[in-house]
Amino acid sequence: MSDQIKHECGVALLRLRKGASYYRTTYGTSDYGGMKLSLLLAKQHNRGQDGAGAAMLRLQPEPGTPPYRVLKSVAAQPLTDLLGQIAKRHSASDPYRGASSPAASDETVFLGHLRYATFGRQDLNFCHPFVHVASTLERTLLLAGNFNLTNTHELFEEYRGLGFFPSCKADGYLMTELIAHNLKHGKPIETALKEALTGADGAFTLIGSTAAGTSFAIRDPHGIRPGYYYMTDEVVVVASERPAIQAAFDCDLEDVKELPPGEVLVIESDGSAEFRPCLPPAESRGCVFERIYFSRANDAEIHHERKALGAALMEPVVKASGCDLEDIFFSFIPNSAQVAFHGLVEQLYAEGLKRGKHVRFGQVAVKDAKFRTFIADAAARREFYKHVYDVTYGLVRRGEDTLVVLDDSIVRGNTMKNAILPMLDRLGPKKIVVASSAPPIRYPDCYGIDMSTLGELVAFRALVNLLGAEADAVLRAALEGTDLNSLEKVYGRFTEQEHNAEIARLLTPKGLHAEVEVVYQTMEGLHAACPKSSGDWYFTGNYPTPGGYRVLRTALANYLERREGRSY
């Protein structure tokens, strides 16, 4: 993705099911749990950028000794710092160290979290795991999650209504306190979770444990956020991404299962584990953006899905090029579009063989990962910004070729307009076709991805331009109407071709020599490529929860309030 948007959080839960001597004898280490937790986190590092945390619990602790330890970091490289803390947690500088300090081999339950804040501050207090401390181990709770709720204010008032004084409005804190409150009177964990989470509107994958050693993992009933598990007689493992589990435990694809939405995986203190009913069943609406961009493409299913997304674009990009196949050079925007590009190239080769034509492709855009600028002058910064991407010269025939570049999605379009297209134009193509493996992103997200502002979405800006002088009145009428999706009929005023042409105009910087055309994935192509993930609200406005529609209405209201004096 050329635009930088914030990722989702990642979680990792590990429960050891054997005694310490088993892991020491079998694997030659007294810190098998810490090592595997570190690996699970490292293999999900793209999901957490501004904070990381971990917790380790030991079973049946002696009174007067700590039953758990919590480590957190918001350093410049939080995961690196956290992994260092995990490795050194039993060194001489360990604050838990002492005559009664637990050894690494005593720890049985491990929680890990990578934080990517869509909202909130870069602060240790906002890092997971959250802890509710009680006078008993059974009611002391540690919780971490990949989630975003649309009704945090309602949970805040619910907690106040129980007679408590909330010290924070963060959704993680409130969820922890509500679950802990429902653990009273010896309620089973699935009952406590049901009572605390039934009213939560949004997306979540939660992991946690009581200090007594009852651990759990649960996804929201729609399965919006991802979650996978792996069980053997040695371990129970949960993580946000399947390849992380496969890498850490060297297991096969079929051994790692998806957490069933709405059910809770409960691991008792004796190590027994089972799924139990918890939240009311709901339509499966797994986030399709996970498949297009966020999840790692070394997941076999996601790899095939991304290739299918690219393959589906073969005919429309060749048609948009408007020239012979041998006069087109095909490339992609690094790095997440690369797998979809492989699918496109495979289809192109089949077409080329059929037509007796040669297919030319290569990497013309190269992202300079080490490029940094601290220039204060605004004009100089704009010039330097163009050079975030380098180009490979000599591949595109100047004045002869049409250049097709595949991106996985176009969100705001800023990087495409200000960096990528100006650099590609230096190669001298007569036309540039920008292809997106995702459909146009027309609606805000409220379930964890940082796309909550309508006015930043290039597809919405194109809509406003097409409406012209009518824009304010039409959008105001949509806001005041009764339709759940207040924008669907407004988008329906224009054809896909009209909308895409206006997006292409918005993406074209002044002075560009090449003609620019934009080709998007169709909704039919998206669902055919990703049949297991129907969570497509980014493109359709079909939100899985009532809170999604409230967020859309709020985003539109905020846009109209700010529109006065603002020009696109």
Task: Give an account of the 3D structure.
It is a single chain. The protein is α+β, with helices and mostly antiparallel strands. It has 2 domains: 10-284, Glutamine Phosphoribosylpyrophosphate, subunit 1, domain 1 (4-Layer Sandwich), CATH 3.60.20.10; 303-562, Rossmann fold (3-Layer(aba) Sandwich). 35% of the residues lie in helices and 19% in strands. The protein has 20 helices and 20 strands. It has helices at 20-27, 32-42, 78-87, 152-161, 171-182, 189-197, 242-249, 288-294, 300-311, 314-321, 338-355, 378-385, 414-425, 458-467, 471-480, 488-491, 496-507, 523-529, 537-540, 546-562; strands spanning 10-16, 51-58, 68-73, 107-115, 130-132, 141-149, 202-210, 215-219, 228-231, 235-239, 257-258, 263-267, 273-277, 328-332, 360-361, 365-367, 389-391, 402-407, 431-436, 515-520. The protein has a 7-stranded antiparallel β-sheet, covered by helices on one side. Strand 18, helix 13 and strand 19 (431-436) form a beta-alpha-beta unit. Helix 5 (171-182) crosses helix 6. The model has no long low-confidence stretch (mean pLDDT 90).
